[in-house]
Design goal:
- This protein is an alpha/beta fold.
- It has 2 domains: 163 residues, 3-Layer(aba) Sandwich (Rossmann fold); 122 residues, N-(1-d-carboxylethyl)-l-norvaline Dehydrogenase, domain 2, CATH 1.10.1040.10.
- The protein is 52% helix and 14% strand.
- Helix 4 runs parallel beside helix 6 and helix 9 crosses helix 13.
- The radius of gyration is 20 Å and the shape is globular.
- The protein starts with a strand and ends in a 27-residue tail after the last helix.
Length: 302
């Protein structure tokens, strides 16, 4: 079993840490907000060890997994002098976040120059998929490094697919999230149309869930679309971050993404109106003009 550091104990990171410990790995956890990591360790029994600093977490481990908010944070943490001093030559660093292709390129270059290995490995799936061990990982890096990463990642992933060299994983994750976020916006509009046409939201969702559009996303987001009190799984603020990365990648590569640009405009309007912390499904409850709605008391019908 491996000595593993996991940096970032949000919902996904916490679930991954528990799966890693359950698979027999020795796991040190660190979070920028120490209380979050401490609460996870306190609730886990003997499976996890709290690291007070990122340097403490990475010193002497075989693999470092990052599940941080964005590429900027991931770069600032991994490339900090203290963390670089802590890493043993040849350490395998695996970024599981949606960091963007620029961040992946920067991390790959700096870590290789420092004598380490890097795998860009964003995931498709949510916390229930982590708990069930059914995540899909889109890994990029050398074939040897991806094979080494697979040994650790199989604790919570059903498949680890190598999609190319460093950066390709991030590009593929942006392509997957393009469909997810555009579908989320389309569901929001479909439910609005159905309700305004006299079909109650729950009955409309029954039809959508049984129709040709019933992707897994439609099924597992049912409760969030029907009950505004469902706990947030992915916030609209994070959706806006992802859509910003996606549309920027489109401009960089010359890919035309008019539907996604419109989805970003709508999500950004919701975030600007104060809805950033709410679940992505709450886009179906946000209606322009933004100023007419409170983020704590969204308009609902049906």
């Amino acid at each position: 079993m491996a000595e593993v550091a996991l940096l970032g104990t949000g919902r996904m990171g916490a679930a991954m840490a528990l799966r890693l410990a359950g698979a027999g790995h020795h796991v040190r956890v660190w979070n920028r907000t120490t209380a979050s990591a401490r609460a996870l360790v306190d609730s886990s029994g003997d499976g996890l060890v709290l690291a007070e600093t990122a340097e403490d977490a990475v010193t002497g481990v075989d693999a470092v997994l990052t599940v941080l908010a964005d590429g900027g944070v991931t770069r600032s943490v991994l490339l900090a002098d203290a963390v670089q001093r802590g890493l043993t030559p040849g350490t395998l660093v695996i970024d599981l976040g949606t960091s963007g292709t620029d961040a992946a390129a920067t991390l790959g270059r700096h870590l290789r120059e420092a004598g380490h290995r890097f795998v860009d490995a964003p995931v498709s799936g949510s916390v229930p998929a982590v708990v069930a061990g059914t995540l899909l990982v889109m890994a990029s890096g050398t074939p040897e490094d991806v094979a080494a990463a697979r040994v650790v990642l199989k604790a919570f992933a059903a498949e680890v697919l190598r999609v190319g060299d460093v950066g390709a994983g991030q590009a593929m994750k942006l392509a997957v999230n393009l469909v997810v976020h555009d579908l989320n916006a389309a569901l929001a509009e479909a439910l609005d149309l159905a309700e305004r046409s006299g079909v109650p939201r729950a009955e409309a969702y029954d039809v959508l869930e049984r129709s040709v559009v019933a992707a897994p996303f439609v099924r597992y987001k049912r409760s969030a679309f029907l009950d505004p009190e469902t706990p947030t799984a992915m916030s609209l603020a994070l959706v806006a971050k992802d859509l910003g990365l996606i549309t920027a990648q489109g401009r960089t590569t010359g890919a035309a993404l008019p539907l996604t640009e419109q989805a970003l405009a709508r999500v950004q309007a919701a975030v600007d109106a104060g809805w950033g912390p709410r679940d992505m499904a709450d886009l179906s409850r946000f209606h322009a003009p933004a100023a007419a709605h409170s983020p704590t008391q969204p308009e609902t019908r049906g």
